[in-house]
């Protein structure tokens, strides 16, 4: 049985940068575009790195900022100032 983690985001301008960063840091991830929503899923683990987002945005970025665009998540959350990680252990 597979254990996929996922994050579902609103399909808006700020979330598009987040999607780019997630796909760059997680080349194994799969993306699904739904009406008004973008869902990204991967086997066992997804990592969102602060440094990648800052490169995409061209400014400092706090990991907590992404929560504005999050609709739903699936997986255990591990979070610090530099990463937001979804994974099954």
UniProtKB/TrEMBL annotation:
UniProt xrefs under InterPro entries: MOase_MmoB_DmpM, mOase_MmoB_DmpM_sf
Coiled-coil ranges (or none): none
Entry-linked Gene3D superfamilies: Monooxygenase component MmoB/DmpM
SUPFAM superfamilies: Monooxygenase (hydroxylase) regulatory protein
Record's keyword terms, sorted: Monooxygenase, Oxidoreductase
GO molecular function terms attached to this record: monooxygenase activity
Protein family per UniProt: Belongs to the TmoD/XamoD family.
Protein name as it appears in the record: Monooxygenase
Native source species: Zhongshania marina
């Amino acid at each position: 049985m597979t254990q996929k983690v996922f994050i579902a985001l609103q399909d808006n301008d700020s979330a598009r940068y987040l999607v780019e960063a997630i796909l760059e840091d997680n080349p194994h991830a799969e993306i699904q575009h739904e009406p008004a929503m973008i869902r990204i899923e991967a086997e066992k683990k997804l990592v969102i790195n602060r440094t990648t987002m800052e490169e995409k945005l061209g400014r400092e970025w706090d990991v907590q900022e992404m929560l504005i665009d999050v609709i739903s998540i699936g997986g255990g959350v591990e979070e610090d100032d530099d990463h937001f990680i979804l994974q099954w252990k």
